[in-house]
Write a structure and sequence with these properties.
three-stranded antiparallel sheet; alpha+beta; Phosphoribosylformylglycinamidine synthase subunit PurS (chains A, B); ligase (chains A, B); 81 residues; homodimer; Mth169, Chain: A
Chain lengths: 81, 81
């Protein structure tokens, strides 16, 4: 069984209030030197069977239609070793 | 400027209703062959200055005290090339 990771992040041009809240809280908590924070989602999928090109194409389609809102979000698909 | 990624996932023994909802929805949407889904958070931090051992130690402390709830969540810190 293989694990495929789909990361979904807001597009760079889309405001990220969650990430901004984290970034602004850090200095108050004593952590300096972080100039920007973006927060997104990580999906870990356990895939039955081999992760071949066909399986990856299906997962990419799944991410595009269901896991990410591609109007405002970018996604990336990675096979985890 | 370097990017450091902090991934925060629920511990394996903690129930993940969000991931389960995604997993149960997939066959209805025509995607088969995914036996488990876990959903977590991904933080992308833009770090001022070099990402040396001291900076990574600070970010690990930040993740432990602030980004993750280590009672129920695991985290990993990665430097993105």
């Amino acid at each position: 069984m293989a694990r495929v990771v789909v990361d979904v992040m807001l597009k760079p041009e889309i405001l990220d209030p969650q990430g901004q809240a984290v970034q602004r809280a850090l200095p108050r908590l004593g952590f300096d030197g972080i100039s920007d924070v973006r927060q997104g989602k990580r999906f870990e999928l356990e895939v039955d069977g081999p992760v071949d090109d066909a399986a990856l194409a299906r997962i990419r389609q799944m991410a595009e239609t269901f896991l990410a809102n591609t109007v405002i979000e970018d996604f990336s698909v990675k096979v985890e070793s």
